[in-house]
Amino acid sequence: MRILVVSDTHGDLERFDRVLSKLEKESPVDMIVHCGDCYEDALNIRMSCGIPVAAVKGNCDHEFSETGFLLLATEAGDFLVTHGHMENVGQDLQRLYYKALENDCIGALFGHTHRGVFTEIDGVYLMNPGSLSRPRDGSGGSFGIIETDDDQVCGKIYRYKEFTEGQAAGPSGGLRPKSGRLRRLLNDSDRL
């Protein structure tokens, strides 16, 4: 499964439309995940593009949900999708990491900070695609691609300017095998 991950579009879908148009021509995606702010943008994307869209509400969405997250099933395992403000991702990723573990997820997709990052902590993949319209990391805007198959996860953050000026969004970051979730769960059993 090939997933386009975006967040924090805040009503500005111009760059998103350019990214999706290029992806459709060069390397189509199977799904789009919008990690909140603004949920209405995700609804507009869903109506206009014909690709399945999974979305959560963020702190700038007037009526954000009580749970604030959803579970996205992939061939490699489930991903937790959240905006991140309720997990305090602006400070660190520890609460997000444990929330992914507690929900038996292999990873988490989140936003809120407007800063792109893809990392792995003890076998749990964490991706914040940054923001295409309001970046706070000097990137000029970014988005993420996650690719999964039966036992591997691959992910990469793409900078908008580099991508639109020629960089293809093919497989990247190296395929990584899933690692021992059961071992980690037992080691962290005091969290249960």
TrEMBL record:
Organism: Candidatus Fimisoma avicola
KW Metal-binding (keyword) present: yes
Statement: the UniProt record of this protein carries the keyword Metal-binding: yes
Cofactor(s) in the UniProt record: a divalent metal cation
Protein name, UniProt field: Phosphoesterase
Signal peptide (UniProt feature, chain positions): none
Molecular function terms from GO: hydrolase activity; metal ion binding
Annotated family: Belongs to the metallophosphoesterase superfamily. YfcE family.
Every Calcineurin-like phosphoesterase domain range: 1-151
The enzyme's E.C. designation: 3.1.4.-
Keyword terms: Metal-binding
Superkingdom, taxonomy of origin: Bacteria
